[in-house]
Amino acid sequence: MSYLIKDMEGNYLKTLPVTVEKALYRKQTEDALKTYQNHLEELVKERTAELETEILERKRIEGEVRTLNAELERRVEERTIELRIANQELLQSLETLRKAQEQLIQSEKMAALGGLVAGIAHEINTPVGVSITAASHLEQQTKEINTHYHNNTMRRSELEHYLDVAEQASRILLINLQLAADQIQIFKQVAVDQTSSERRFFNLKNYLSDVLLSLYPKLRNTRHTITINCPDTLSLDSYPGAFSQIVRNLVLNSLVHGFEHKEQGEITLDITLQAESLQLRYTDNGRGIGKEEIPKIFEPFYTTKRGHGGSGLGLNIVYNLVTQQLQGTIVCESQPGAGTTFLIQVPLSIS
């Protein structure tokens, strides 16, 4: 079956043998394609709308993130400034504390020198007093013999007596002035050691005995006793000033804290050699230290006598001298009512 087909102007074109079935199939196909195309367009519109919504949401989230980041950066900057200011204030506080500590340490050194001066006055008072008495007696005898000489009444026995008195007075003057000079030299060396870090060779027992003389003003009105058990020939190449300050501060700690309500206290320093180290065992029979206090006693400014003359630096100075300058160790053993022991161990060879 054939169909005549006209063009747009109404002219008949060549006839094509087309079946009705094919025409219908083509029509259905075109309709299906148009329907599918419309469906695709709807899907594209829906997906485009969804993407636009997602893009807007992402932009909103990105905006919030930027806002949060800016807020976080602002807070970090503020906190950084606060920390910088706090750090500067802390450094200033530490510097102030360091200067205060240095001033307190210097004050304690001056107090030690004050005690040393009092010790010097006590020790040289006797030989100087004897020397003055001898010189006064010699002066009186010289005046008397001079009078007899000028009056031509001097007898041989009087001259011989005067010569004996002069010889004895000269001997007394020489011995006692030499003793005073030796004492002054000893105290001078102790004073230098207390304020310097000079290393030198010294006899430990003799030196500690000299150091204890400087504590005489603290001990003269008490019945406390101090015993030093140390080999007579033990000499060290070390820092005598460190030993001076260690012993002095330990003794003062016992006097202020250990013997507060004790009339007759006993302090013992036992010094022994062990292999390549020196052990100093300091013991008192005072009131002792509580278990909870022992971990704190070496801390700077820790004291149970705040407002009563305690600076809280004495044992801290001892700890630093032992562990740093002498490169040793110090341990405290104590119980309330059972006294206190400080065990100090330092190497004989210090780098």
From TrEMBL:
GO MF term set: phosphorelay sensor kinase activity
UniProt-listed InterPro entries: HATPase_C_sf, HATPase_dom, His_kinase_dom, HisK_dim/P_dom, HisK_dim/P_sf, Sig_transdc_His_kin-like_C
| Annotated source species | Vecturithrix granuli
Entry coiled-coil feature ranges: 26-107
Q: Which UniProt keywords apply?
A: Coiled coil, Kinase, Phosphoprotein, Transferase
EC nos: 2.7.13.3
Gene3D superfamilies, alphabetized: 1.10.287.130, Histidine kinase-like ATPase, C-terminal domain (3.30.565.10)
Q: What is this protein called?
A: histidine kinase
Q: Which reaction does it catalyse?
A: ATP + protein L-histidine = ADP + protein N-phospho-L-histidine
Q: Where is the Histidine kinase domain?
A: 119-350
**Which stretch is the leader sequence?**
none
